[in-house]
Amino acid sequence: MRSANATSRPDFRRADGGPVPVLHHATLADGRVVDVRIAAGRVADVVPAAGAPVGENDLDLTGFVLLTAPAEPHAHLDKALSYDEIRPPMGDLGSAIAAWEAHTPRLTVDGIAERARRAALRALANGTTALRSHVNLLRGEDPLRGVRALVRVRAELADVMDIQLVALAPYTADDDTVHAALDLGVDLVGGHPHQTPEPAANLRRLLGIARARGVGVDMHTDERLDPAMLTLEQLAHAVRDRPETAPVTASHCVSLGVAPPEVVARVTAAVAEAGVGVVTLPITNLYLQGRDHPVATPRGLTAVRALLDAGVRVAAGADNVRDPYNPMGRSDALETAVLLVTAAHLTPAEAYRAVSDSARAVMSLPPAGPVRGAAADLLAIRASSLEDALAAAPADRFVLRRGRLVAASRSERTTAAGVPD
Length: 421
Hints:
- This protein is α/β, with parallel strands linked by helices.
- It is built from 14 helices and 16 strands.
- The protein has 2 domains: 6-69 and 369-409, Urease, subunit C, domain 1, CATH 2.30.40.10; 71-362, TIM Barrel, CATH 3.20.20.140.
């Protein structure tokens, strides 16, 4: 049976990218019910809801919570949704790398682009309006297939989503290949020094390329449960004098989560002093890490609370979605936030901040949200509170990027006892 209260539902018209001048009756995370006026892609005003008439292009958000739109600070669009074509065995990081490497000779630019586009649009539909993706520099005669694919997808989706690209350079990739990726339009230099024969030397090489090109870096860092592996500390000391125009991000940082307290204190202080942003990636690292600890299995997370307490910008992302590194994932930042509450013991507000405001800060994006003067990148989700939104993750959502409606989703449920609340 359908709800008899259909008139109370907002208009789920097809998202056409058109501007939305006013959001009516939106509930903010602090419980206030407001009207939000938008102009030129920014929030022009936030005032108590006054019951003003809803214009043709406005949205009535009665029953919706209005939040800063999520940002995804660490994705792998070139790998996303490849699980079904690879059918990898379930396992740890080593087996995931082996499965991906075995599959790479079969990758084509068109195939990578098709999967990447689907994955990005799934994230957009769930509320993500900005995304940073690492892209592998592949082994073989054409190492830039993934780069060309993601540069194409970035251009195709430029009107609805901000996409940043990081060249993920294995130690076998020479300097010319990294420079070629930057020449094609990649934004940042990345790699995984902890997986190379000489981590310190590899880190210096990649930082040198970034410095020469005047770009930022985002390094896969210490993705192992080894308390002696502290590439993060080396990175922090190496970039203390970098210009603000070349931001530095360290992703994963799993080893710090199992280090002794005195080591954690020392490293977090160095990271805070250097201004390095840290991205934790709960779903993938909880899946990959700790498989050799069948009893008292450690959590595959960095020292999230210690980093926050030290004043470090801590963001969170999904990392891999439905590929050899993570067979699960729904491209929804709320999934990441829930895992932060459960596994990192953050409050719901802290967890959501990690996938929205802090993620945007790590990505060097301007502040957004239902705040006067902020960019109008907004997520409206049918819920009574932030906690309700995280717990239920309802599909009913409106997504605005720079004040334009770029995604709208609606769900209906019935039971034999009637329509659920």
